[in-house]
Amino acid sequence: MSLFRSKGIGIAGVACAVPKNNVPVERFVQVFGEKAVNQFSATTGIKATYKALPEQTASDLAVAAAKELFAHLPVDKSEIGAMLLVTQSPDYRRPSSASIVQLRLGLPIDCSCMEINLGCSGFVYGLQTAMSMMMCSDYKYGLLLMGDTATKLVNPLDKSIVMMYGDAGVAILLERNEEAKSVSLLRSDGNRFRSIVLPAGGFRDMNPGHECFVCSDGIERSLYDIFMDGTTVFSFSISDVPDTITDYLRLTNTSVADYNAFVFHQANQFIIKQLIRKMKLPKEQVPLSLDRYGNTGGVSIPLTLCDAYGGQNGGKVKALASGFGIGLSWGVISLEFDKDIVFPIVETDDCYKKGKFIPGKY
Amino acid sequence: MLEKQKLALLEETLNVEEGSLNPDTVLRELEEYTSLTILSLIVMLDDEFGRRVTGAEVKSFKTVSDILALME
């Protein structure tokens, strides 16, 4: 049983950045027709997303979020002992983008840095990993960064997901806090790895052709496009996820009444409605951001926090968060924080131009 | 649950007229059998019968009888 109990590590700040490029779903009417676009919005609840520019990467978004965080909370960077970057959109095949982010944020050599390759479950896994590392050491601050640009990996004619994904980055500062406590329950099922997959470009099939073919859902894609078996993923989201939350409540001896916010991965509105119904959650305690930001993968939980509480004064939030998706991988974690350490979402078109390698120039 | 009751539940789930389905009804020919009502069907099979269907299973449904077989 992967139940983790953390003590003494609290959330000191959350900041989020999205690209400036806002894409309302109406823009797809010309491609898919009004009926299909309206039906998509009615089911998913998504009305617009933010898409990164071609030269803008996930690490750029994570760095923008971290800079926003440090603008609000000027910490001594020499006291940051670990920086974790959760992303599935790295700048290069290698090294991990954690190295680039370390450089750009001016983190010291004494700061341990690494990347975690997870998608929609990334916040829950990433937060647990960051807290666990801190509990084994004595540095003052830990930094959890996340970023993804899934919009770049979708076939432009894939009506099942092209309107769904949004890009975003987030930065979360962790600090020692004697009163802080958190419990997480993490799960994974490799049996269902095929249900969300981008087959090409890894080392199993490095350079296959780019031609499109018809997938099992009738939609044309190439091996370089994200494929999602929507039915299996939906079934997973409305069964394994509430089961895990139920197990979590039992194992922690808590109930729905012990939390005042339930923050779900913003997969789609229909799924979140089913979770509210199944778990008998108070609807007003389930914040939504997907209508304006779409499905931003693992970033979607902290993004929803910034959207719901950013710029608000005071008040304690005792949240239960659940991320679930690609892997399949999912988990539940509890977190407590004051609303005033959650900052409003910023927009950015910043990108690291020096990161581009020019043939013959290196 | 009697077959009549199962059909009524399925009609409600798929949002089709009462009494319009029979075991031989071909799903593909139903205008209401869309990606949206398929999601409702997945919810119903899970809620009412504890059946967790995969994408491949849903794809294999040809007629109403294929769904009735899971409503046990």
Describe the structure.
The complex is a heterodimer of chains A (362) and B (72). Chain A is an alpha/beta fold and 362 residues long. Chain A is built from 9 helices and 15 strands. Chain A has helices at residues 29-32, 34-44, 58-72, 97-105, 122-135, 230-252, 269-279, 290-293, 300-309; strands at residues 3-19, 22-24, 48-50, 80-86, 112-116, 141-148, 168-188, 196-197, 213-214, 220-221, 227-228, 261-264, 316-325, 329-338, 346-348. In chain A, strands 1, 4, 5, 6, 7, 12, 13, 14 and 15 form a 9-stranded mixed sheet that branches. The longest helix of chain A is centred in the middle third of the chain and has 23 residues, at 230-252. In chain A, 49% of the residues are buried. With 72 residues, chain B is an all-alpha fold. Helices cover 53% and strands 0% of the residues of chain B. Chain B contains 4 helices and no strands. Chain B has helices spanning 3-14, 35-49, 55-60, 64-68. The longest helix of chain B is centred in the middle third of the chain and has 15 residues, at 35-49. The model of chain B has no long low-confidence stretch (mean pLDDT 91). The chains are: A alpha/beta (362), B mainly alpha (72). The A-B interface holds A 39, 42-43, 195, 216-217, 229-232, 234-235, 238-239, 270, 274 and B 34-36, 38-39, 42-43, 46, 52-56, 58-59.
Total strands of chain B: the figure is: 0
Distance between the termini of chain A: 48 Å
Low-confidence stretches of chain A: none
Assembly level: heterodimer
Give a nutshell description of this structure.
In chain A, 28% of the residues lie in helices and 27% in strands.
Topology, pairings included?
The complex is a heterodimer of chains A (362) and B (72).
Chain A: E1 3-19, E2 22-24, H1 29-32, H2 34-44, E3 48-50, H3 58-72, E4 80-86, H4 97-105, E5 112-116, H5 122-135, E6 141-148, E7 168-188, E8 196-197, E9 213-214, E10 220-221, E11 227-228, H6 230-252, E12 261-264, H7 269-279, H8 290-293, H9 300-309, E13 316-325, E14 329-338, E15 346-348
Parallel strand pairs in A: 1-15, 4-5, 4-6, 12-13
Antiparallel strand pairs in A: 1-7, 2-3, 6-7, 7-14, 8-11, 9-10, 13-14
Helix pairs in contact in A: 3-4, 6-7
Chain B: H1 3-14, H2 35-49, H3 55-60, H4 64-68
